[in-house]
Amino acid sequence: MARWKPIHDCDIKEHRYIENVSLDGCSQSDLEIEGKTYQIDSWTNVPQSILSLVPRRLHLQPSHPVSLTRRLIESRFPSPTYQHYNDLFPVVTVAQNFDSLGFPADHPGRNRSDTYYINKDTVLRTHTSAHEADIFRQNASEGYTISADVYRRDAIDRSHYPVFHQMEGARMWDRRKVPEGNIAKAIWDDLAKIPKHDLEVEDPNPTIHPERNPLQAEHHSQEEVEAVAAHLKRSLEGVVVELFSKAKQAAAAAKGPDPLIQEEPLRVRWVEAYFPFTSPSWELEVFWQGDWLEILGCGVTKQDLYINAGIPNHIGWAFGVGLERVAMLLFSIPDIRLFWSRDMRFLSQFTSVDKINRFKSFSKHPACYKDVAFWLRSSSSSAGGGLRSNAQDFHENDVMEIVRIIGGDLVEDVRLVDEFQHPVSGRKSLCYRINYRSLERTLTNEEANEMHERVKGELVNKLGVELR
After folding, report:
1. How far, in Å, CA of 186 to CA of 271, rounded?
2. How far apart are CA 116 and CA 94, in angstroms?
3. Nearest by Cα to 45 from 62, 28, 61
């Protein structure tokens, strides 16, 4: 059961970093992550509360809903065509995470407000694609999937968590290895081997559109891309059949059939999209319980990725999906924090991929709302004495990180409820509402107050704001 307690002494081993200064006041010259030591520097911003989650690897725990979701998706991508990578280490270089994928130097994803840095050259991966170039370079199979924990500084609410799990997959064909070099025919032949389905599929747009969804004309012909797109869509439609057929069965077994779920046919639609690593690109949406829900993104892999990996003769597709997002739909789990619970009332509800159970709530504890309002420092003001508190430097994720470090899973959500700019001074004021609520017990008002006072203190100390 998650517990919060005040931290006072430096003899504990938990060091939490904002601006490379631990919240408990202890100094530290390096970080150890699963036996590997990393030197810290001015870029270091990863707290121990995040590092403590690295060994959990929810996607590998046999009966965990994240793991069950992974296994269901993997079942649609059999070996030996597809090789599955599930145990890749989460610490990667900046080059792997950003440079190998062509992220511009000024891309916001590189910012310390978005990414957990071990040091200036090393990060906790923000996506499974950090391993993509290495796997392309190995060229060990025609296809692959990667499932892994990924890390991002993000909002606090029921659908966001700083550690979550992604799965990506890819399928490739080598022009040099297909009969007579006819890559399109080889792909259509492989498509014929994929089982058909009876889904209702809406796909109103052309595969290629010169402005909205362009062809990589310098590398691919339209005929080739039509074949790749058809293979991609049939493969991923099969994933939807596997997942949502199970979800329907689970819904029917939970207190009798749900008429809304049972009567509506399973429908999917393809929507044009933009992703930096694919073109043309699509999102796959499923009509579920009366709404269209985005499930995954995909597309024809950018040829530069193959070229940079030393396999320029390849062509193929790739997709990416958030495992928690799918698991929340599949198992009807209402709060992403539940995935990290060690409470057996949660974990015992899930057993195998053969029998998907809908989550049954075991408690509903009251919320405790607390507001915090503050002024950001103007460029000419010394209020708060902070270095990053003016409106130009302020980032909401820094607020989220302070709240997350202090409150952990005892905070359900944080949202901006008011903002105001003084008409004379031009200073900006923000008010955030923090919802303290445990998934497992009732918090006392005293506990919430103590956490909230610490939050306010750290906002002043670390961000230099002036409380109102």
Report:
1. 26
2. 11
3. 28
* pTM for this predicted structure: 0.86
CA dist 145 and 126 (Å) reads 17
Measured distance CA(147)–CA(135) in Å, rounded:
13
Query: SS3 for 300?
Result: strand
410-425 pLDDT, tens per residue?
Answer: 999 999 999 999 999 8
405 within 8 A of 21, measured Cβ to Cβ: no
**What does the block give as tokens for 376?**
């950001």
pLDDT tens by residue, 207-256: 999 999 999 999 999 999 999 999 999 999 999 998 988 888 777 776 65
Confidence of residue 365 (pLDDT cuts 50, 70, 90): confident
Instruction: Name the amino acid, one letter, at 116.
Output: Y
Please give the full DSSP string across 399-438, using - where no structure is assigned: HHHHHHHHHGGGEEEEEEEEEEE-TTT--EEEEEEEEE--
Rg (CA), the chain: 24
3-class secondary structure per residue, 234-298: HHHHHHHHHHHHHHHHHHHHCCCCCHHHHHCCCEEEEEEEEECCEEEEEEEEEEECCEEEEEEEE
